[in-house]
TrEMBL record:
Keywords: ATP-binding, Magnesium, Manganese, Metal-binding, Nucleotide-binding, Nucleotidyltransferase, Transferase. The keyword Metal-binding applies. ATP binds at residues 90, 92-93, 113, 125-126, 176, 183, 262. Its EC number is 2.7.7.-, 2.7.7.108. Pfam families: SelO. This is Protein nucleotidyltransferase YdiU. Mg(2+) binds at residues 253, 262. The active site is at 252 (proton acceptor). HAMAP family: SelO (MF_00692). PANTHER family: PROTEIN ADENYLYLTRANSFERASE SELO, MITOCHONDRIAL. Its cofactor is Mg(2+); Mn(2+). It comes from Pseudomonas batumici. InterPro entries: SelO (IPR003846).
Length: 487
């Protein structure tokens, strides 16, 4: 275990120079205090979670103090927002404090979100509010616990600093961690500003730091792009299988590592709805739940365009062509597991599709359906679940097919089926109304609910006695919460 001042910094991105980021100091928050800390993220830095209670912790992550070896910098990037190219974005309210190595030799970017204005703030105040910081904190760590790759969150620091959104709120800072904060938009920036030298420098940096195995391939850039396509296909398959809606899949919010990144108005589905739009500001539904798949491919094409100086158009097209088949294979594999199926049959895809169609019209809770399906034998579980569906006849027909399918499985042991299914079907999910309850308590100065919810979601597959209320469907008020981009 390390003390806070024992972190080892090696700021490789900062060394790329002023063409890539701008040195700038965090603007401190008034009266900073710890709202929540993630023990799992602390462990990644070899830090003891208990030290988060010391005042110096809130001072460091509330912008008052800095390590001597930190080198806070705002990164420049651009990107496609809602389909339109925005030539200049960049860290408008976040700073890369530096890169830290842990004892295992892993490297983590420390990025302080809400740290004040930068040259990329445009009209913004450089701040993040408590509400959105708590949402990102809870989601990052919950996604990770579900096995869905994501940026991590070390802590949320609250404050008395007033921040104006639709109404007056309080400023907060979130310490985000990821092996890299390079986005698709970084490559787009250097491509569209016609800076081939810098683009090459960025490409070589990313290859060496994050895709070293690609350097051994005859065409390293192509190997890297293929890898990015593959990782995104797998990531989005996980989002779709677990009902995660990102909300703002602009290319500046897409990580080159294929991890869930920069999600604001995200949501996990309560009732299954393929057309669900979680971002209140997304009038056209560009980023609706089911659109995440074609948008994932669209975003990869935008990245491909930016990589045309390095890779032939032909090869880029071919690599892009891998996305859909890979997505489908991963998705079907995950859904088979969620249904308790261990071997593959040709009709499994149809079995999944018809279930989702029945759920779509039925208003069926997406998470609890799969959890309950694993509680008992296929026959018992479907008999119990049928009342949740509006098209009961349709569901009965599906249940018959499902039971016949389960009967062809090699392992018929019920205890093992349950263990297998519960290991992939969470009981607890970050529902919007649960986040909302925790946020309201925190805005009133009580951080217990955020901490408890975070703890429950860190073991989503494990039944936790006394925590039954976190596994419930949303109450009426919590079903259609409007989450906007303003954060
Ligand atoms: P986001 O919607 O958080 O992905 O942000 C899109 C762009 O707007 C990024 O360049 C952000 O840095 C910038 N931005 C968002 N909110 C603010 C803010 N309050 N102040 C300054 N820049 C912001
Ligand atoms: Mg962003």
């Amino acid at each position: 275990m390390k003390a806070l001042d024992e972190l080892t910094f090696d700021n490789r991105f900062a060394r790329l120079g002023d063409g890539f980021s701008t040195h700038i100091l965090p603007e401190p928050l008034d009266n900073p205090r710890l709202v929540a800390v993630s023990p799992a993220a602390m462990a990644l830095l070899d830090l003891d979670p208990a030290i988060a209670e010391e005042p110096v912790f809130a001072e460091l992550f509330g912008g008052h103090k800095l390590w001597a070896k930190a080198e806070p910098r705002a990164m420049v990037y651009s990107g496609h927002q809602f389909g339109f190219y925005n030539p200049r974005l960049g860290d408008g309210r976040g700073l890369l404090l530096g890169e830290v190595y842990n004892d295992a030799g892993e490297h983590w970017d420390l990025h302080l979100k809400g740290a004040g204005q930068t040259p990329y703030s445009r009209m913004g105040d450089g701040r993040a509010v408590l509400r959105s910081s708590i949402r990102e904190f809870l989601a990052s760590e919950a996604l990770q616990a579900l096995g869905i790759p994501s940026s991590r969150a070390l802590c949320v620091i609250g404050s008395d600093t007033p921040v104006w959104r639709e109404k007056q709120e309080r400023g907060a800072m979130l310490l985000r961690m990821a092996p890299s904060h390079v986005r698709f938009g970084h490559f787009e920036y250097f491509y569209y500003t016609r800076q081939p030298e810098q683009q090459k420098q960025l490409g070589e940096h990313v290859l060496a730091m994050h895709f070293p195995e690609c350097l051994e391939q005859p065409e390293p850039y192509l190997a890297m792009f293929r890898e990015i396509v593959e990782r995104n296909a797998e990531l989005i398959a996980k989002w779709q299988a677990y009902g995660f809606c990102h909300g703002v899949m602009n290319t500046d919010n897409m990580s080159i590592l294929g991890i869930t990144f920069d999600f604001g108005p995200f949501a996990f589905l309560d009732d299954f709805d393929a057309n669900f739009i979680c971002n209140h500001s997304d009038d056209q539904g560009r980023y609706s739940f089911s659109n995440q798949v074609p948008i994932g491919q669209w975003n990869l094409s935008a990245l491909a365009q930016a990589l045309t100086p390095f890779i032939s158009v032909e090869a880029l097209r071919e690599a892009l062509g891998l996305f859909l088949p890979l997505f489908q294979a991963h998705y079907l594999d995950l859904m088979r597991r969620r249904l308790g199926l261990t071997c593959a049959e040709d009709d499994d895809q149809k079995l999944v599709e018809s279930l989702l169609q029945l759920m779509q019209v039925g208003g069926v809770d997406y998470t609890l359906f799969f959890r309950r399906l694993g509680d008992e034998s296929a026959a018992q579980a479907t008999a119990r679940l049928r009342d949740d569906f509006i098209d009961i006849k349709g569901f009965d027909a599906w249940a018959e097919r499902y039971q016949a399918r389960v009967a062809r499985e090699p392992d018929q042991d019920q205890a093992r089926r349950k263990a297998r299914m519960h290991a992939v079907n969470p009981l607890y999910i970050l529902r919007n109304y649960l986040a909302q309850n925790a946020i309201e308590a925190a805005e009133g100065g009580d951080y217990e609910e955020v901490r408890r919810l975070h703890a429950v979601l860190s073991k989503p597959f494990e039944e936790q006695p006394g925590m039954e209320r976190y596994a419930e469907r949303p109450p009426e008020w919590g079903k259609h919460l409007e989450i906007s981009c303003s954060s």
